[in-house]
């Protein structure tokens, strides 16, 4: 058995590198004159791999634990890495490991507020087995940032929802929870830490400005965080998310269709009123009805012209 280190990222990497396949299944698809892969070498190398792939009862044990049969003994990151790796290989096909790859990177950032009363309480929530929720980062009112999951791991923060054509937001996003009960402003220290973190994430993963969104954008009607106190204007000024020109709004032309524009921005218009309310809670804040006023339409028109 390979002895993998505790870091899941390293574990995943080592495992991925080491465990292409078994000697039995490996088939080199290139023609013999292709110099890229030497069949003998590949087969020989895969002999090492056989020991690293969980087989038989070991794999069955892990599967049972994943299914919850042995919930009291949580999977180690290494076991999870092995299960994920195995489930990503289609055993009905031949397999020839390509040599160039890296890891899929997050392309969205979703902001939440915790609706809890302290960072410690949120951390506890994310560490209890029955809650089934998590996020990558928690930021306290004092600006302290606690990372709770590796950026490359899929956190359970977004849940059901739709943004554009994306339904599985957890698979492509990072979740950031701000310690806030939903009825209070966000302290400056907390927002400053958030801005620094967002800057790091945006640069490292090349995340587009429009892909910094709130939970309520993705799940209107079901989620309402972050609250109306959240300073989206301040974030947009730094390149995270979008905001309109408050000092000069052009009236939307008669031919402009604000519903289509909201759809283009990303909102799921299946429940039109809920989507409009989510939009207004973010951009208008004072009027949270499900109808669009002329000013609301002008805001949508401005966003549409600026970003889309
Ligand atoms: Zn949320």
Automatic annotation (TrEMBL):
It comes from the Bacteria. Residues 93-227 form the N-acetylmuramoyl-L-alanine amidase domain. This is N-acetylmuramoyl-L-alanine amidase. GO terms for cellular component: outer membrane. Keywords: Cell wall biogenesis/degradation, Hydrolase, Signal. Its EC number is 3.5.1.28. It catalyses: Hydrolyzes the link between N-acetylmuramoyl residues and L-amino acid residues in certain cell-wall glycopeptides. CDD domains: PGRP. GO terms for molecular function: N-acetylmuramoyl-L-alanine amidase activity. Pfam families: Amidase_2. Residues 1-23 form the signal peptide. The keyword Hydrolase applies. It comes from Sphingobacterium humi. GO terms for biological process: cell wall organization; peptidoglycan catabolic process; peptidoglycan turnover. Transmembrane segments: none annotated.
């Amino acid at each position: 058995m390979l002895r993998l280190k505790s870091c899941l990222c390293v574990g995943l990497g080592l495992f991925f590198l080491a465990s292409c396949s078994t000697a039995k299944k490996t088939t080199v698809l290139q023609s013999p004159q292709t110099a890229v892969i030497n069949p003998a070498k590949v087969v020989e190398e895969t002999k090492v791999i056989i020991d690293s792939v969980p087989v038989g009862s070991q794999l069955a044990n892990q599967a049972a634990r994943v299914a919850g049969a042995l919930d009291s003994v949580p999977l180690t990151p290494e076991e999870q890495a092995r299960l994920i790796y195995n489930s990503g290989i289609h055993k009905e096909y031949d397999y020839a490991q390509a040599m160039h790859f890296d890891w899929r990177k997050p392309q969205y950032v979703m902001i939440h507020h915790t609706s809890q009363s302290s960072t410690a309480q949120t951390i506890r929530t994310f560490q209890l087995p029955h809650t089934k929720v998590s996020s990558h980062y928690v930021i306290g009112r004092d600006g302290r940032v606690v990372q709770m999951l590796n950026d490359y791991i899929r956190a359970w923060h977004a849940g059901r929802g739709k943004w554009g054509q994306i339904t599985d937001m957890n698979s492509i996003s990072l979740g950031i929870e701000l310690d806030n009960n939903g009825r209070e402003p966000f302290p400056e220290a907390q927002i400053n830490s958030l801005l620094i973190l967002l800057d790091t994430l945006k640069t490292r993963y090349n995340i587009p400005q429009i892909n910094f969104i709130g939970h309520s954008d993705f799940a209107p009607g079901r989620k309402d965080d972050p609250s109306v106190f959240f300073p989206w204007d301040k974030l947009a000024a730094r390149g995270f998310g979008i905001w309109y020109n408050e000092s000069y709004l052009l009236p939307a032309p008669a031919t402009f269709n604000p519903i289509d524009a909201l759809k283009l921005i990303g909102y799921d218009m299946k429940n039109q009123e809920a989507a409009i309310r989510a939009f207004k809670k973010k951009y208008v804040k004072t009027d949270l009805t499900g109808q669009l006023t002329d000013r609301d339409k002008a805001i949508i028109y401005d966003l549409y012209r600026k970003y889309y």
